[in-house]
Amino acid sequence: MSLFLDIEEKRTIFVTEGKDQKVVSKFVDDLIAHNGSAEQITQVSCDMSPAFLKGVTDNLPNADVVFDRFHVTKIVNEAVDKVRKAEVVNNPILKNTKYLFLKNQDNLTKLQQEHLNEIRLSGLNLKTMRALNIRETFQQIYQAKSPMFFKKLLNKWYFWATHCRIQPIKEVRCLYHSTTLEWYC
């Protein structure tokens, strides 16, 4: 199912089956049937589905795409987990720690927090810990007080990600184009 919401009015305006480019076309047909115009849509927040993006590009000529926080963060989390999986082979301290590195700090149990602190204080220069720091910093960007500050923080994060020498993280950064502040899939 795909839902189209008016964020400002906080209401659902269209629902249909599917998640591809045809869904956007159906939405535009419904919008026109209700005296709306595709040209009035200036922003679309969505996941990174290439088919859906094509639908937006083909049917909503004035819309900028904003990838939702959940899906972008998911990609960063997947990169952290790739780093952990590669490193656990040589560092048994990382065995059975997947969720220590995927959960937010606030969601860790006391036991999980203690285990993560043991890993932090182990004296090992673990790429997984550096990847975790990059992920946590990325998530903090969303606390920015203004769009301008958000862009500034995102550019700093992008520089860090491109220079971190951790391949899965470097692959995440290729999704982000710093000059246009756009994410690509």
Note down, in words, how this protein is organized.
There is one protein chain. It contains 8 helices and 6 strands. 52% of the residues lie in helices and 12% in strands. The strands form 3 sheets. It has a two-stranded antiparallel ribbon with strand order 1-2. Strands 3-4 form a two-stranded parallel sheet. Strands 5-6 form a two-stranded antiparallel ribbon. With 185 residues, the protein is α+β, with helices and mostly antiparallel strands. Helix 3 runs antiparallel to helix 6 (127-141). The chain has 2 domains: 2-67, no CATH class; 69-183. It is elongated, with a radius of gyration of 20 Å.
Topology:
Layout (H helix, E strand, L loop, with lengths): L1 E5 L4 E6 L4 H13 L9 E4 L3 H10 L4 E4 L1 H20 L9 H5 L7 H11 L6 H15 L5 H16 L4 H7 L2 E2 L4 E2 L2
Parallel strand pairs: 3-4
Antiparallel strand pairs: 1-2, 5-6
- Listing every helix as H and every strand as E from the N terminus to the C terminus, the arrangement reads EEHEHEHHHHHHEE
- The Cα radius of gyration reads 20 Å
Please indicate the count of domains. 2
- Strand percentage: 5-15%
What is the molecular shape? elongated
Instruction: Determine the number of helices (DSSP H or I, runs of at least 4 residues).
Output: 8
**E-strand count:** 6
Low-confidence stretches: 177-181
Structural class comes to alpha+beta
Mean pLDDT across all amino acids: 88
Helix content: 40-55%
The spatial strand order of the largest sheet comes to 1-2
For the largest beta-sheet, the strand count, sense and barrel status come to: 2 strands, antiparallel
Distance between the termini: 21 Å
